[in-house]
Every structure is written in C-alpha cells, then in structure tokens.
Request: fold
Amino acid sequence: MIDRLTSPKTIKYIMEKYNFQFSKRFGQNFIIDENVLDRIVDGAGITKEDHVLEIGPGIGVMTNALCEASGKVVSVEIDRSLIPVLDETVGHHDNLTIICDDILKVDLKALFETHFKEKSPKLVANLPYYVTTPIIMKFLEERVPVTDLVIMIQKEVADRIMASPSTKDYGALSVAVQYFTEPSIVTRVSRGSFMPSPNVDSTVIRLNVRKAPPVELLDEKTFFSTVKDGFGKRRKTLLNALTGGFLGLDRDEARKALAIAEIEERTRGEALGMEEFARLSNAIFTIKKGR
Reply:
C-alpha cells in the first residue's frame, strides 16, 4: 500500500516504478489536492449506506476516499497499464472491485445486475474532457439506475449544463441534462489541483436524477428532435430553424406548430425554456401524427 496518493512525489515514484506515462489519449490528470477530494465526497453526500460506481480511478486517489466513505465501490478503468498500480494503491480495500474496460462500451445493464443488484449507486468520476458529454448522456438516455452523477468536468461544460434560457452558454446540452436531472455546483477546481496541470479549470457538478420528467410530453423522441432543431441554427428564427430540419417539417407545418404552442415565429430557440420546448414538441407530434 502506498500512502499520500495526492503527493506529486508519490505520483512520480509510481510512474518510475511501473514505467507509467500520462496518456493524452485517455485524458489523464490526477488530483493532488486533498481538499478537493473532501469536497467531492461531502458534496456527493456519500455514507456507508451508499454504493458507488467510479469511472476512471487513475492511480486510485479518489478511489481511496470513496472506499473509506462508502459501503461499496466499483471502479471502471480503461487503461490496462494502471491495473497493477491500483492493485498496490487501493487493492487493500475489501469493499472495492476494479474492472478494466471502456465505460462507453460496457453493457451497463449487465454491470449493474452483477455488482449492484437492487441497490442504486451514485456515480462519481473525474471525467476526461474529451468524453464528458458522451458518458453523461449514455447514463441518462439509457436510464441507468443511478441516484446521482457527481462528476468533475471542464468548467465550460458545467457552465453549459447549468445555463438558463437567453444566455450565451444555454443550448441543447442544458435542456437535455436539466430534463433528466436537477444539476447543482459542488465546487470549482483550479487547474493547479492536478498533475499534470490541464489547460482549463474544472467544476464538480452534481446531477440529481429526477424520478419523473419535469414536463409532460406526448413523445420524448420528438421533444429532443425539437430541441436539436431549435439550437441547430442559433441565429435563425424558430420558423426558419424548424423548416426542413431534423423533424422534416415544411414551412406551413412549422408555422402551425408555433401557433399551437403560442410561440412567436421570430423567437429564437435559445430563448425557449423547458416548458415552451415541451409545448412546441407536443404540437409538432400532433401535426405529424395527423399527416
């Protein structure tokens, strides 16, 4: 067992011992600030009653804190070269299972049936920036039974997730994540809290998964297509954005849908809130169904 995994000296020792090199391909940046770990565990509200799914344990910095705080941890690591490192750094925890795999390719249903059974875990992860959105949306769209996603992500992505209508950061990601979850900021993390230091600052965000959607929809697929069309041409009015978009509406149908939803034709998609997108998508679904 190696102590003080947040120490740069310890990380350098591990790198030399295991001939390990940081991988840009996997977006590896290890936490060297213990205060950040405390804020993540506290922000996630983790207790011994909780089970945790961790993505990207790295050398086990956060894994160690999660094992000490929770009842069970399952960590999924894509980098095979880190498995022997994890065996040494956190292998002593009897409540830990390490899986070497790509979380984007894992059969999540099988993983949950095997390791969590009837217990819904919390997802905790220091996500590589390049796969942040795909991982978030995979868990939300597949409706994986997690209660919360507590994730360290690029500050700009967190700002987009938290954004409100008519702001520069507001977009399709804002609507999608807020549809599935209630997001909140846990803490901001400076680039100096990592080794190696990334070029951007990070944010730990908590996504509390909703038990029911915040709006009533006639068809969820139509809703997300409406959102996609609405933001597909940001500088265009909704009448123009909906005409010939992913939904396949002609101009008359787009005008009719906007009228039914009581939305002005010259409105732009970034001005619509969740309720308005819901009204518009329900109108579109009704029009398409009546063709």
Remarks:
- Strands lie at 30-31, 51-55, 72-77, 96-100, 122-126, 148-154, 181-189, 194-195, 202-209.
